[in-house]
């Protein structure tokens, strides 16, 4: 993609493209973030046999990550708002790099739980920092696309992991897979500290591009207490959307390799191609979801109608997954799951953008952190539930049924709480809501 549209009809090539380099760095960080967390999911069917954990214990290992992720998200948004994205992001990735490599020392369920807990604490900083960076570097009309691009890193990471991890594990042992991903994180950290500066302090940024980035009406740069944010229905709309739908994505990450191994007998090396297909489709969905909302806006739709219209399309893409649990053909199941992951990632790009639609830049990371906390709590619940369900029944059908309905339910809740996506007036009190 060589040019991005601006309000004046000019191309970004004339204004400058440096903000898209920042977006590329966010894409790289998110890719590494998901490689780190996906290593366990890829190796899970085989580590389960080597370490000897059962479905319930694996559920506890996943829950440890989710618990730390929830705690981290509750704190990191406010920390990043206070320290800024350069330092806040650096601290987060340093923690998760060390935690990722510490998995190589684990030899028991408890050891993996401790390593996953520390990984969750560090990785919790990625999305609050990235969303805040987008809010700082992009005008509102470009944020959905920028978010969709960097958020596609979650799918790229999920593609790279099943491609890379089995080869590394078979060649050098499963411990090496965790060490390699930790080194990738540390490499990104060095590049970030050497090159990143806020827009006003970046000498490579042209005056024209800075003016474009700051083309939205100015916002007061004051810190807002969480208590004031939570008085607004707009905040609860984002929190509810994350709580209802994030658990589905966590299920995809940590249980799809086990599902494919259990239902279709795939080996460690055999998991690669189906998982790559699934997450390539998710990658397409991430960018397409952000593009679709922007396209609707260009057609003259309001931001409210465009955002929710794109979310509805994405939600409908997830519904057919209800048939995946009973598919008697591997590639039919892969297609249905891939369509659902595409729907989720397109949904996610728009849900994240809701925060910058409804909140000023200085509050975005805090709101994202609150929503991420809710999503991680939901992920904790689904992880423990899934472990007990599979240990008792071995059936994935109830899980796919919940996944297929979650997004339509979430969209209804978002619309009920924020019918017009009206910006929250944090300086006064709860913003009023009107019907669409």
Q: From the coordinates shown, what is the CATH architecture?
A: Up-down Bundle
Which series of helices and strands comes N to C? HHHHHHHHHHHHHHHHH
What CATH first level would be assigned?
A: Mainly Alpha
Number of domains as seen in the coordinates: 1
- Mean pLDDT across every amino acid position: 86
Give the proportion of residues in helices: over 70%
Q: Which stretches are low in confidence, meaning pLDDT under 50 for 5 or more residues running?
A: 1-9, 429-436
Shape: globular
Main sheet properties: none
CATH topology: Growth Hormone, Chain: A
Could you say which structural class the secondary elements and strand pairing correspond to? mainly alpha
Write the CATH homologous superfamily: MFS general substrate transporter like domains
Number of DSSP E strands: 0
Distance between the termini: 34 Å
Strand content: under 5%
Radius of gyration, rounded?
A: 21 Å
Transmembrane segments: 58-80, 87-115, 172-194, 235-256, 268-294, 306-325, 331-352, 364-390, 396-418
Subcellular location: Cell inner membrane
Keywords: Cell inner membrane, Cell membrane, Membrane, Signal, Transmembrane, Transmembrane helix, Transport
Domain Major facilitator superfamily (MFS) profile: 22-422
């Amino acid at each position: 993609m060589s040019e991005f549209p601006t309000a004046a009809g000019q191309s970004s090539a004339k204004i400058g493209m440096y903000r898209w380099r920042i977006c590329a760095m966010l894409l790289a960080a998110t890719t590494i973030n998901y490689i780190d967390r996906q290593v366990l999911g890829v190796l899970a069917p085989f580590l389960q046999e080597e370490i000897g954990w059962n479905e319930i214990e694996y559920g506890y290992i996943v829950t440890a990550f989710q618990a730390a992720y929830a705690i981290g998200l509750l704190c990191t948004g406010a920390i990043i708002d206070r320290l800024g994205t350069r330092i806040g992001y650096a601290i987060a990735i340093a923690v998760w790099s060390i935690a990722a490599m510490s998995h190589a020392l684990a030899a028991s369920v408890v050891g993996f739980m401790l390593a996953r807990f520390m990984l969750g604490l560090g990785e919790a900083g990625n999305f609050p920092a990235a969303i805040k960076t987008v809010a700082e570097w992009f005008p509102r009309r470009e944020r959905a696309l920028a978010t969709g691009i960097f958020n596609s890193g979650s799918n790229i990471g999920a593609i790279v992991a099943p491609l890379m991890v089995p080869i590394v594990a078979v060649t050098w042992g499963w411990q090496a897979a965790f060490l390699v991903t930790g080194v990738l994180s540390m490499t990104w950290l060095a590049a970030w500290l050497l090159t990143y500066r806020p827009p006003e302090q970046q000498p490579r940024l042209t005056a024209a591009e800075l003016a474009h980035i700051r083309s939205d009406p100015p916002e007061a740069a004051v810190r807002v207490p969480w208590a004031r944010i939570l008085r607004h229905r707009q905040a609860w709309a984002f929190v509810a959307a994350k709580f209802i739908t994030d658990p589905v994505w966590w299920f995809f990450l940590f249980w799809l390799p086990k599902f494919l191994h259990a239902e279709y007998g795939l080996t460690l090396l055999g998991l690669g191609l189906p998982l790559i297909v699934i997450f390539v489709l998710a990658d397409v969905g991430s960018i397409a979801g952000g593009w679709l909302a922007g396209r609707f806006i260009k057609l003259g739709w309001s931001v409210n109608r465009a955002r929710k219209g794109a979310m509805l399309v994405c939600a409908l893409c997830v519904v057919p997954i209800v048939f995946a649990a009973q598919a008697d053909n591997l590639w039919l199941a892969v297609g249905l799951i891939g369509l659902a992951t595409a729907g989720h990632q397109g949904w996610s790009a728009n849900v994240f953008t809701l925060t910058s639609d409804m909140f000023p830049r200085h509050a975005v990371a805090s709101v994202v952190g609150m929503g991420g906390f809710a999503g991680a709590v939901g992920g904790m619940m689904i992880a423990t539930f899934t472990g007990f369900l599979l240990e008792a029944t071995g059936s994935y059908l109830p899980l796919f049924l919940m996944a297929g309905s979650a997004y339509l339910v979430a969209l209804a809740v978002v619309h009920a709480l924020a019918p017009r996506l009206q910006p929250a007036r944090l300086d006064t009190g709860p913003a009023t809501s009107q019907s669409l």
